[in-house]
Amino acid sequence: MALPHLERTLTGGNMLKKKANCMIENILNPIKTGLKMLSEKTITYNFPPDMPLTEGFRGRHVYDPEKCKGCSLCAKICPNNAIEMVEREKDGKRVLQPQVDYSKCCFCGLCADVCPTGALKLSNFPFLVVLDKNELLYPPEKLVQPPKLEIGKAPKIKNISSWARSRSFWVLNYFTGCCFIEAIPWVSSGFDMERFGLIAVGSPRIADVLLIGGYVTIKTLKRILRVYQQMPRPKYVIALGNCPMSGGTYWDSYNTIKRLDKYLPVDIWIAGCPPRAEAIGLAVVMAIHAVQSGYTGKKEEVTKKGDLLKLPEVKTDLEEKLFVPFGPQHPGSGNFNMLLKLDGEVVEEAIPNPGYLHRGFEKLMEYRSWWQNIMIVQRVCVLDGASYELGYIGAVEKIAGLDAPRRAKYLRVIQAELSRMQSHLLNIGLVGATSGFDTVARIAWGDREKVLLLLEKLTGSRIYSIYNIPGGVRRDMPSSFKDDVLKFVKYFEKRMKTYDELCFDNEAFIERTKRLGRLTRDQAIDLDVTGPNLRATGARLDVRKATPYEAYDELDFNMITLNDGDAYSRVLCRRKEIEESLRILENALDKIPSGPVANKKTKSGRIVSYFTPLPKGEALHFVESARGELCFHIVSDGGKCPYRVKIRGPTFDTILVALPKILKGVYVADIPVIYWSLDNCPADHDR
Ligand code: SF4
Ligand code: SF4
Ligand code: SF4
Predict the structure, then answer these.
(1) Neighbours of 21 (CB within 10 A)
(2) Is the beta carbon of 4 within 6 A of some atom in ligand 3?
(3) Domain of 190?
(4) ipTM of model
(5) Which residue has the least CA distance to atom 6 on ligand 2?
């Protein structure tokens, strides 16, 4: 069998000379970049947080009972059943008032949008962190209180071991669902987890804290319980997001659990969907306080219910060979699993075992109204939710006969390109980290924070923007937004040089990624690969050019193609696409027309609003997401909800079909780099 790694390292000219140059450059370049960075402004936020919370961020509600007329519309539109109307006495009469359960709320803001009197609004307060989940129930009396960050005084230290333990948490991340996205900033230079004594570890045997990042499917639960069981005492569990508390967004999914504490003890709950990275900081401070005062975690045992601790048997006809699982609890895999059949160190066969993130999306969307689906649809893929919103809205507008105003189309493009950039930066960091360039990850994820801040300013949220509505967008850009974006564009045009020095022009990085996981142009086309993974092979396909949507046909940008189709080309393609996104942003902000940002009137004169049914019909809509072609096929039977939704995401073919073919014959050690160079989002193919 050909050994691709050897072929990679031994070809190409005068090896000795090349190696010597490479060594000098590898030593000098990081030093040069490090020295340059010393003169730059520190980008690590203080805690309590001094990072800018934008005005429009969607956080905890504020309620004015004087304005409320008890119409219950807020409860009716809520996609998560987080609002219950409760009886109260007002001016001697019984009235209905909203009570919000923050173990369920996803902060979509639909309740505030629909409230006819402005009685219910969302503030920008993101800190909902509790030891007791019941504290997340906010009756009207509590909603009236203005939100306030309260960090209790540090308690007395019990003894030397409780002090030492509280200052050196070793954290095992189990990224079960999309909430993990807000744990990632803690690895970046912006949040810098190590200053709190937090260290991310890979083995449960040495971990004190299990951080569970989001929704938990039945398949994932079995893995979590096994991981938890292997941790030494005292051990602590922190659950991120509403899904592990109440089922959250997937409260009616057939494949997710609804209460994690039914299966294992949870010490700290962080509400949000996803919770902001700063809220994780508050949880850390609470954990330090609790542990230094002697808290040693809840004592309950892992549930023994049913066969939860048994792993599924893998039936194979493969004798005498070594089988190694890749994922699902591993930084190199995300929540995705493959079984690798090995011949020594070389992969003979890779068998994908998806489903750890399956939530039954297409079914869930049949039970939610056209409007409520805006909230859920972007959760298909947390890494680039904006594209899913855009794909869904495009199909809905075709069915409804709605046309968004031109200004809204430009705003949609701006949102989509910001989302593409943050996704590409995340990927550059992942490929950097898995190929041994940790600094690249820290820098890329630190820069990603700047893009997320712009997204938040535009849409009201860092991650799940819920910005598009049928007929337009929810709000116009704030007055300072154009300047903020242009400032960022200038900064980033210069910043790209740092990435080139550390990564793309760095011989060591090139050596570790070139000729690795190669796909030819014809193979990529045959296997239905799309996006940067396809364009890195030389094939020319980009939905923004092929069938332009929104305002792309009016904007100036190039389609990036490269020729080698290997890991290096794929990640370089993303780096170059970031430059094109910067051009699109500048161009869009220059050309954006004035005018309204939403239109409720269809071509036939009907008004489409929160609770209206859509006419019978069906539509197919494609967009170019960060990972490639994304297709929505939606059927309406004339009702208030879609009759059928089919989502075809970009990772389905790339990962479940092409990846096993690419991995044949590669070294096990090269898999993480190849895998992340393909930019998988397991939540996308699992749906
Ligand atoms: S913000 Fe969304 S999920 Fe939360 S209560 Fe309002 S409608 Fe429900
Ligand atoms: S929609 Fe507004 S006015 Fe109606 S019950 Fe809710 S808070 Fe009160
Ligand atoms: S849907 Fe929201 S709460 Fe649930 S895992 Fe995703 S981000 Fe977290």
Answers:
(1) 12
(2) no
(3) 41-313
(4) 0.96
(5) 74
